[in-house]
Amino acid sequence: MSKCEQCIIRQFNSLKSLTKDELVRIAGCKTSKTIKKGTVLFEEGEHINGVFCIKDGVCKVSKMSDNGRDQIVNLVRKGDLLGERSLINDESSNLKAIAVNDMEICFIPKEEIVRDLEDNPKFTMDILKNMASSLKTADNFIVDMAQKTVKQRLAATLLSLDERFAKNENGALDILLSREDIANIIGTATESAIRLLSEFKKKKLINLKGKEVFILDNKGLKDISTGF
After folding, report:
1. Is the pLDDT of residue 217 over 80?
2. Region for 130 from its dihedrals, namely left if φ exceeds 0, alpha if ψ lies in -120 to 50, beta otherwise
3. How many CA atoms does the CB half-sphere of 117 hold within 13 Å?
4. How far is Cα 134 from Cα 110, in angstroms, rounded to an integer?
5. Distance from C-alpha of 165 to C-alpha of 175, rounded to nearest angstrom
């Protein structure tokens, strides 16, 4: 079992605020596992009862709309915590999480983390800051969905992916999303997403090879995303 106090991943999230003794205790009760691409981490309406620390890989977090479409609201990546809201309220999850690629995760039971929330103000503050940041992102997302065109949203999404994810050895974004995933991020039909991606490729804003996406013209994408 890997030791939390020696794990570099915790430096990227709120766990960095825990003391060595707290980390040793968490290492003794967490469960680590490898999750295959396409596996559901948790379903909408499920009680999570803890937090996931993402050691490697990416998962998509989505909500099902009334018309049966999945709306992807976030991509959670290596270094992130997932499920912090379950620590604060006892409600079932409002969202669903699915592995986009093979993942390594650690699951920390709620009762253990709640002890640290009660005893370590620095950790509590860090969790609250992360949740405030998530709320800000959600606010921006709502405004974009209401006021930007689908084309603007696609350009903004590609820029966001370029900012958040590294490049692979080919120079493509180091995250392979299906056309359906991209459509579910920008809130449109898959055919519309395919048509717009082809249009962006023709304009040499991006290149596409299978699921690989290469960002070629950041300024051009920024101009589209802001409505120029």
Report:
1. yes
2. alpha
3. 16
4. 20
5. 7
pLDDT number for residue 222? 95
Residue 219's identity, in one-letter code, is: K
- Give residue 13's region: left, alpha or beta (phi > 0; psi -120 to 50): beta
pTM higher than the cut 0.85 = yes
Q: What is the DSSP code string of 132-146?
A: HHHHHHHHHHHHHHH
Cross-strand pairs, 56: 104
The 10s digit of each residue's pLDDT in 62-119 is 998 887 888 999 999 999 999 988 778 778 898 999 999 999 999 999 988 888 888 9
CB 54: neighbour CB atoms within 10 A? Answer: 23
Q: Which two tokens stand for residue 99?
A: 């592995």
In Å, the largest CA–CA distance within the chain is 57
Q: Concatenated DSSP letters for 88-113?
A: H--PPPSSEEEESS-EEEEEEEHHHH
User: Under a CB-based contact definition with an 8 Å cutoff, are residues 72 and 60 in contact?
Assistant: yes
Contact indicator for 64, 74 with CB cutoff of 8 Å: no
185 to 69, 113, 201: CA distances (angstroms): 11, 31, 19
C-alpha 167, offset from chain centre: 17
> What is the pairing mode between strands 96-99 and 58-64?
antiparallel
Q: What is the mean pLDDT of residues 14-21?
A: 90
